Each structure stands twice: as C-alpha cells, then as structure tokens.
Amino acid sequence: MKCKLSLIVEGMDRENFDEKSFLNLQNGKVFVFGEYGNHYIDDNQKVEEKVLYTGDIISLPGRHEINEYKIIKDFIDTIKDDKIQKQLLITINGNRAFRRFKDTCINLGIINDWYKFKNNTYYELAKEWCTWNNIEYIDDVVTKV
C-alpha cells in the first residue's frame, strides 16, 4: 500500500482542536475524524467510527508534533528586510499570535510566501513521518520550491 504524500500533507494541515487526521493503512487514504463529521479527504466519503478501532489506522502528526510556532519563527528568519522581520516577531507574542501573524503577512503582501514555506515544511515533515513509520508513499506534492 502506498499513500499519496499530498493527502498526508493535507491531513496534517487539517489538524486542529476539533478534528484529528488518520491514515488508513489498508487503502492508503487519509481521513478526518471530528466534531463536524468523519470523511476521507480525497473523496469526502463518510468513514464509519468503527474504523478507529480496527488497528488498521495510524494517527498523523498533530499540532504538538508539527510545532507551527517553530515553523513561523523559521519563516521569519528567512525574511531579509529587518523592519518586516521585527514586525512579524512582534505579532507572534501573546494571545491570538497565529491570527495576528497571518493578518500581518496579508497586509505586507507576503502571505503566499508564508503558505509556500509552510507547505514545504509540512512536505518535509510528512516524508520524515512516512520514513519513520515505514510507510511507502507516492511523492505527488507539486508545491515544492
């Protein structure tokens, strides 16, 4: 069984407090299980709750393993303009830091740079996760720089 790396990346990106993403080891599909429904990412087909208890699934990396705050700091380190870099560093302190960071990236016109950096980082994390878990994958991610 091989899984599409793009589905793993999307599943990792969907992780939040209300949803958890898993890889079905039998069919190579990624599904989201959460408050708003249970469905496979690629075809939106409903997933029965009993799938969670079969032993044929593995949880994708969650927010704690991904550490998006570190990814944001790594992105800020790539910014060459000192003024912009300082402005972004200020936004990531305190409550609602992620929202302020994203809004600031939009206002500065660098939101696409952020998304590209984040996607590339998720891509690398997904490859490492697959290797660590002996999961074969199809490298179908096209957003690499």
Distance between the termini: 28 Å
Residue-averaged pLDDT: 89
Which stretches of 5+ consecutive residues score pLDDT under 50? Answer: none
- Could you say which structural class the secondary elements and strand pairing correspond to? alpha+beta
Tell me the total number of β-strands: 6
> Looking at the chains present, what oligomeric state does this protein adopt?
single chain
Shape: elongated
Number of domains: 2
Q: What proportion strand?
A: 15-25%
Query: Into which percent range does the helicity of residues fall?
Result: 40-55%
Main beta-sheet annotation: 4 strands, antiparallel
Encode the helix/strand succession as letters: EHEEEEHHHHHE
Q: For the CA atoms, what is the radius of gyration?
A: 17 Å
Strand order of the largest sheet: 4-3-2-5
Note the total helix count.
6
Secondary structure: elements and pairs:
Layout: E1 2-4, H1 5-14, E2 19-24, E3 30-34, E4 37-40, E5 57-59, H2 63-66, H3 68-78, H4 82-91, H5 97-108, H6 111-132, E6 136-138
Parallel strand pairs: 1-6
Antiparallel strand pairs: 2-3, 2-5, 3-4
Helix pairs in contact: 1-6, 4-5
Short note summarizing the structure:
This protein is of the alpha+beta class and 145 residues long.
Entry keywords:
single chain, 145 residues, alpha+beta, four-stranded antiparallel sheet, two-stranded parallel sheet, 6 helices, elongated
Task: Report on this structure.
With 145 residues, the protein is an alpha+beta fold. It has 2 domains: 77 residues, no CATH class; 54 residues, no CATH class. Helix content is 48%, strand content 17%. It has 6 helices and 6 strands. The protein has a 4-stranded antiparallel β-sheet with strand order 4-3-2-5, with helices on one face. The chain has a two-stranded parallel ribbon with strand order 1-6. A hairpin with a 2-residue loop joins strand 3 and strand 4. Helix 1 packs across helix 6 and helix 4 packs antiparallel against helix 5. The protein starts with a strand and ends in a 7-residue tail after the last strand. The mean pLDDT is 89.
